[in-house]
DNA sequence: AATGGATTTTCTGTATACATAGATGATCCA
DNA sequence: TGGATCATCTATGTATACAGAAAATCCATT
């Protein structure tokens, strides 16, 4: 079926939000730049009401900043901001893992998680890893992290983990694609996957502190990758939102 | 000066948000109850546009839940939800304290914090503590926690701590007033104040792990108080939002 | 030439009208 | 009498018009 450029099945608000998010993450809208509602109306095709709605949601998402005199601007992030966001995500994921371990999980709950890990094993077995495999890894990794967080069985915590992962460079899978061009790409993925196995093992054995610690360390792999990407600025197109990161000298 | 019921200096959106928040926290709007926009328009006096804006913001705040078919309903919280929210707040505050300790703070930055502590000391010195003193404690305690979080010098983290503290029963000062009627009220406040001193000491000496651990434990004082309040349901009017907590049997 | 003020323009905040989708109630048939 | 279907009605999503405020521009004066 031929899709119109505007799908009637989703609301104008959602459409405007997606459209504006793409514009921000791709760098078409520069950090610090004010987003005019009228301009947003032209680019998204929606009217002002849903556009305003989308802007409010994008502010909550962390991509926009309210201007005191009114309206919104694209937020700029320092390298430190991004590193802190990653550490924060690791911390709340760590709390989720600890809750899961302390409260116990049934083997039935662990099944999908272990299935995920087996699939990832299948991917990292190949050497070198193909670009398609990296793509699959991104999806599986996201799924693993989501399932793990849900093991906490804590809606408030799940909510906060989702919010902490909303920024693309803070999300668990944010830096996977950027790794794909690095020489020791497979090495990094093997380490990350080992950490996945360890945290599941810790949860199974109800080792809360261990589960928490390993998830924190797991996030620091992403921090390492961020530094690599920022040093050799190549392949920066693989990480949406990199345009929002302003280096110290800028 | 006589204030009109509608202050022209703030926007209709903010006024509607404050008004609706009060209605929710006071229990006038029951958990699970759908909030009609038209009804909200009547009670707040604002028109539909700012009311809708306020509803979206209250959803982000965690007080409302979106209904799939459209609109919003008042969210209900289990006792476990609230305990988890408190633990979460303690965890992110702990991260802020660790950042402050690891990165170091100048004695100039610590001054307002220590001033805060001295003022609190003045309050808890009296025995028994007056209701007015409890009120002052709430304000000073909120100020201390805000200053402490800012010591992390991490905008993303400060943002998340604020969000984790947005729910009244998850906020650092949420249970202070409920304590005021309890027999060992002063005892609890003395312990909390000692923890305040310890975390400042840890930060001064750059003991990151210690600073983090004490902030986590500090939040658990609030968790203890929650259980007390829920067991003897008296004085529940001292905690706004208690109406949102649904016990297991309900 | 630079600065201050006034004017114009553009933007956001708000109100409201309209359309569509969902909910509710009544009526008809089995 | 119970269930299903249809109609009506209400509530939300969307579009747009209007007012006030902020920002930019231009002119005048020093």
Automatic annotation (TrEMBL), chains A, B:
Domain of life, per the record? Answer: Bacteria
Task: Name one molecular function that GO assigns to this entry.
Answer: DNA-binding transcription factor activity
Q: Residues in domain HTH gntR-type?
A: 10-77
Keywords for the protein's UniProt record, in alphabetical order:
DNA-binding, Transcription, Transcription regulation
Please name the SUPFAM superfamilies in this protein's record. GntR ligand-binding domain-like, Winged helix' DNA-binding domain
Database matches in Pfam families: FCD, GntR
InterPro entries per the record? GntR_C, TF_FadR/GntR_C, Tscrpt_reg_HTH_GntR, WH-like_DNA-bd_sf, WH_DNA-bd_sf
This protein's record includes keyword Transcription regulation = yes
This protein's name: D-xylose utilization operon transcriptional repressor
Provenance organism: Bradyrhizobium ivorense
């Amino acid at each position: 079926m031929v899709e119109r450029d505007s799908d009637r099945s989703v609301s104008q608000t959602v459409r405007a939000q997606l459209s504006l998010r793409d514009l921000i993450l791709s760098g078409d809208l520069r950090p610090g730049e004010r987003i005019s509602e009228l301009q947003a109306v032209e680019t998204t095709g929606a009217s002002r009401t849903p556009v305003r709605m989308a802007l409010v949601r994008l502010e909550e998402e962390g991509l926009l900043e309210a201007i005191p005199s009114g309206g919104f601007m694209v937020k700029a992030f320092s390298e430190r901001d991004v590193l802190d966001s990653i550490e924060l995500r690791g911390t709340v994921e760590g709390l989720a893992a600890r809750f899961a371990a302390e409260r116990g999980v049934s083997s039935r709950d662990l099944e999908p998680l272990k299935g995920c890990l087996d699939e990832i094993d299948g991917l990292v077995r190949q050497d070198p890893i193909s670009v398609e495999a990296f793509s699959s890894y991104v999806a599986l990794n996201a799924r693993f992290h989501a399932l793990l967080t849900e093991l906490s069985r804590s809606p408030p915590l799940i909510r906060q983990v989702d919010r902490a992962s909303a920024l693309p460079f803070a999300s668990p899978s944010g830096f996977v694609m950027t790794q794909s061009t690095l020489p020791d790409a497979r090495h990094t993925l093997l380490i990350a996957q080992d950490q996945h196995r360890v945290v599941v093992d810790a949860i199974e054995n109800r080792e809360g502190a261990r589960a928490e610690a390993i998830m924190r360390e797991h996030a620091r792999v992403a921090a390492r990758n961020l530094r690599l990407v920022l040093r050799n600025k190549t392949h920066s197109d693989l990480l949406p939102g990199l345009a929002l990161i302003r280096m110290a000298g800028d």
